[in-house]
Automatic annotation (TrEMBL):
Name used for this protein in its record: Carbamoyl phosphate synthase small chain
Functional summary from the UniProt entry: Small subunit of the glutamine-dependent carbamoyl phosphate synthetase (CPSase). CPSase catalyzes the formation of carbamoyl phosphate from the ammonia moiety of glutamine, carbonate, and phosphate donated by ATP, constituting the first step of 2 biosynthetic pathways, one leading to arginine and/or urea and the other to pyrimidine nucleotides. The small subunit (glutamine amidotransferase) binds and cleaves glutamine to supply the large subunit with the substrate ammonia.
Entry-linked SMART domains: CPSase_sm_chain
A Pfam entry, by short name: GATase
Region (CPSase): 1-180
Pathway in which the depicted protein is active: Amino-acid biosynthesis; L-arginine biosynthesis; carbamoyl phosphate from bicarbonate: step 1/1; Pyrimidine metabolism; UMP biosynthesis via de novo pathway; (S)-dihydroorotate from bicarbonate: step 1/3
Keyword Ligase (UniProt): yes
Carbamoyl-phosphate synthase small subunit N-terminal domain residues: 7-137
Length: 366
């Protein structure tokens, strides 16, 4: 194993800001859009969330790796983040149930990372300047050379990524004899979403991102449709927008989470926009304005629907509002059995306040 503690590494941001730290994970170079997650736990679920594909993750919690990794606690088949930035990178771990260390995990999956960074200073900088591309390297320490490589990295704005993380073959989840069937359009679906369906007596069949409504309907004849979370710019996904439009046209029950929420908005002529920083963490307060209650939510998104366009729309109504910045967290389509939320009710990691949304969907399709 590489003795990472003795090797230097560099983090360079797109605006020229440089941070010096120590190598973690695989020795090498990685690039992506830098973002931060304020969660205090659940780092492995974050690493394996397909919505983070193409992004360098800054962990604001001071210790990462301290409880090791467990292969039962993944949200997809591999690590999806492009790299990790953290303060304390703990190879030694305390949990008896762990399968191994974070260092073994990152080396096995070729994840280049950097530790011993002042993450408070870094996060304050990103918060003030906005999301931007970055490069981590433990093999190239020349700043000019890193700037040249970083200049070649495309912006997340306009980038279609879901087809890169989606399944290539259909598969099923749950009891085949279950009374309800749901077609899942996989744009980067998390395993815990499928578990939440299975726990409620739903048999799910998961389809590749570019599967059409007609193909899913002919194959499964489902009771309802689920549009999943995923990475990238929703406006760069005309194939998925068309699928959502077809489901709406057929008047089929539909539920969308995160990227699925943005696609439901786009299918109703409501534009999306890249957010200055996005929402990533486990403690975002959201108000359900239909039921008049507040829930603490798990979030992970860098794009959102345009609030003014939602309020002006005669096709949808607002169901949930973010209490921090008043952004739109939930909508439902008027005169249709279709609704969506921007946050993650499956909450892996995170609080369980919002899991009633799965119950609402199951009741809708019964």
């Amino acid at each position: 194993m590489t003795n990472y503690t003795k090797l230097p590494a560099v983090l360079l941001l797109d605006d020229g800001t440089v941070f010096h730290g120590k190598a973690a994970g695989k020795i090498g170079t990685t690039t992506g859009e830098i973002c931060f997650n304020t969660g205090m736990t659940g780092y492995q679920e974050v690493f394996t969330d397909p919505s983070y594909f193409g992004q360098i993750m800054v962990a604001t919690n001071s210790h990462i790796g301290n409880y090791g990794v467990n292969h039962d606690e993944v949200e997809s088949e591999k690590i999806q983040i492009a790299g990790l930035v953290c303060k304390n990178y703990n190879i030694a771990y305390s949990r008896k149930q762990a399968d191994g260390s974070i260092q073994d995990y990152f080396q096995q999956q070729n994840i280049v990372s950097i530790s011993d960074i002042d993450t408070r200073e870094l996060v304050r900088h990103i918060r003030d300047k906005g999301a931007m591309n970055a490069i981590i390297s433990s093999e190239i320490l020349d700043i000019d050379e890193l700037k040249t490589k970083l200049a070649e990295v495309p912006s997340m704005d306009g980038l279609e990524l879901s087809s890169q993380v989606s399944t290539t073959e259909t598969y099923t989840f749950g009891d085949e004899s279950a009374p309800l069937r749901v077609a899942v359009l996989d744009l980067g679906v998390k395993k815990n979403i499928l578990r939440n369906f299975s726990d409620r007596g739903v048999y799910a069949k998961v389809y590749p991102a570019k599967t059409t409504y007609a193909e899913m309907e002919a194959d499964l004849a489902p009771n309802g449709y689920f549009i999943s979370n995923g990475p990238g710019d929703p406006a760069a996904m005309p194939y998925a927008i068309e699928t959502v439009k077809e489901i709406l046209k057929a008047d089929k029950p539909m539920f969308g989470i995160c990227l699925g929420h943005q696609l439901l908005a786009l299918a109703n002529d409501i534009p999306t926009q890249k957010m200055f920083n996005g929402h990533r963490g486990l403690n975002h307060p959201v108000k359900n304005i239909i039921k008049n209650h507040c829930e603490v939510t798990s979030q992970n998104h860098g794009f959102g629907v345009v609030p003014e366009a939602v309020r002006a729309s005669d096709k949808v109504e607002i169901t949930h509002i973010n209490l921090n910045d008043q952004s739109i967290e939930g909508i439902r389509v008027k005169d249709k059995k279709a609704f969506s939320v921007q946050y993650h009710p499956e909450s892996s990691p995170g609080p369980h306040d919002s899991r009633y949304l799965f119950d609402d969907f199951v009741e809708m399709i019964k």
